[in-house]
């Protein structure tokens, strides 16, 4: 599992764009994690799945609510990473009204999640391989702090908890 002090692994995440912007076309766009993280302070949070109860009712809304406070602590971007495809993440972004606050990143094959060592097998519950619930603070591609939830918990990866550590 990735640890504080480690560099983010090589990886590609997919983001759905509603309009052409910043060299990205409408629809899903493949984005290089290292290039996106270069020179930025990020909060990246991962969760088991789009449109799931805790994720939709608490996790994403908390980061939207605390966006300004996180920015005031020097955070350049907030990323939500889930083992869903970019189309699902785009629909979830519209549903959660994340535009301009939280980048909704799809990791459909769980390749990035596995590279982090933060996958979990929820096949017994019909969900396949998913992400554990976590949050991390990353500066210029290096993990400065990592918060991984115990199974079934939602405490240390909440926006409020991350904000207290910044």
Automatic annotation (TrEMBL):
Family to which this protein belongs: Belongs to the peroxiredoxin family. Prx5 subfamily.
Record: active site: 55 (cysteine sulfenic acid (-soh) intermediate)
Enzyme Commission identifier(s): 1.11.1.27
GO cellular component: cytoplasm
Descriptive protein name: Glutathione-dependent peroxiredoxin
Stored PANTHER family: PEROXIREDOXIN, PEROXIREDOXIN-5, MITOCHONDRIAL
Species of provenance: Pandoraea thiooxydans
Keywords: Antioxidant, Oxidoreductase, Peroxidase, Redox-active center
Major enzyme class: oxidoreductase
Pfam families documented for this protein: Redoxin
Protein task: Thiol-specific peroxidase that catalyzes the reduction of hydrogen peroxide and organic hydroperoxides to water and alcohols, respectively. Plays a role in cell protection against oxidative stress by detoxifying peroxides.
């Amino acid at each position: 599992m990735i640890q504080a002090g480690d560099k983010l692994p090589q990886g590609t995440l997919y983001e759905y764009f509603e309009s052409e912007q910043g060299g990205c076309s409408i629809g899903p766009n493949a984005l290089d994690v290292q290039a996106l993280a270069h020179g930025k302070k990020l909060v990246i949070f991962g969760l088991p799945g789009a449109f799931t109860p805790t994720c939709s009712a608490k996790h994403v809304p908390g980061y939207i609510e605390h966006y300004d406070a996180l920015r005031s602590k020097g955070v350049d971007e907030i990323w939500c990473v889930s083992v869903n495809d970019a189309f699902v993440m785009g629909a979830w972004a519209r549903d959660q009204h994340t535009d301009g606050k939280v980048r909704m990143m799809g990791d459909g094959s769980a390749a990035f999640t596995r590279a982090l060592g933060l996958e979990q097998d929820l096949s017994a519950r019909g969900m396949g391989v998913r992400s554990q619930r976590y949050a991390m603070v990353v500066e210029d591609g290096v993990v400065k702090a990592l918060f991984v939830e115990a199974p079934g918990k939602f405490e240390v990866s909440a926006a409020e908890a991350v904000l207290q550590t910044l």
